[in-house]
Amino acid sequence: MATFEYEALREPGDSVRGEIDAADARAATNLLVRRGYHILRLDNVGEARGTRFGMRRVRNRAVVQFTRDVAGLLRAGLSLDHALRTLRERHVDPTWRMILGTMRTRLEEGGTFSQCLAAHNDVFDSVYVNLVRAGEESGMLVEVLQRLAKLGVRREELRRSVRLALVYPAVLAALGVITVIVMMTFVVPMFTQVFEESDQILPW
């Protein structure tokens, strides 16, 4: 997968510039032609960012922030394509830039938002995708996204609570192990020496 910078003309003659991820120049050209672009320039600027740095595991909080941002931009009156482009331009994370880029490409090829999400099932689970699909079909996408964001926040808070609940017993167990090691390494040998010097029998 490589990243290509392009300049093209689009009806009614507007000049557009951008980036597109594709396997090679021919694939990039085909994608742009399908969008109705007349290509003026196409430059390979290197390996796709997501490939170059490796796809990292996306945290739940990042998905929550993405959901909240998309909902906010749609509520502000932006189209879904414009919202995804805006988020991609803002993002510095290479993994998210790749995800948003491929989502925009699929969207411009006629896919729905839920289909774009389903293509990244390692990031968006089936429940998330199905709820978005229901929001699209009912015309309540913004409301569904806002509810998903709130649900994600609650899930993150629950995970944080569970982690904190597990920390205390883990600390106690670690202190217990350290105490036993100190006793066996320093304290017990000291008592052994005292008993040996006083010619007394050890009680164990």
Describe the structure.
This protein starts with a strand and ends in a 7-residue tail after the last helix. It has helices at residues 25-34, 49-53, 60-75, 80-90, 94-108, 113-118, 126-138, 141-197; strands at 2-10, 14-22, 37-47. The model is unreliable at 48-56 (pLDDT under 50). The chain has eight helices and three strands, in the order E-E-H-E-H-H-H-H-H-H-H. The chain is 65% helix and 14% strand. The chain is elongated. The longest helix has 57 residues, at 141-197. The chain is an alpha+beta fold. A three-stranded antiparallel beta sheet has the order 2-1-3. A hairpin with a 3-residue loop joins strand 1 (2-10) and strand 2 (14-22).
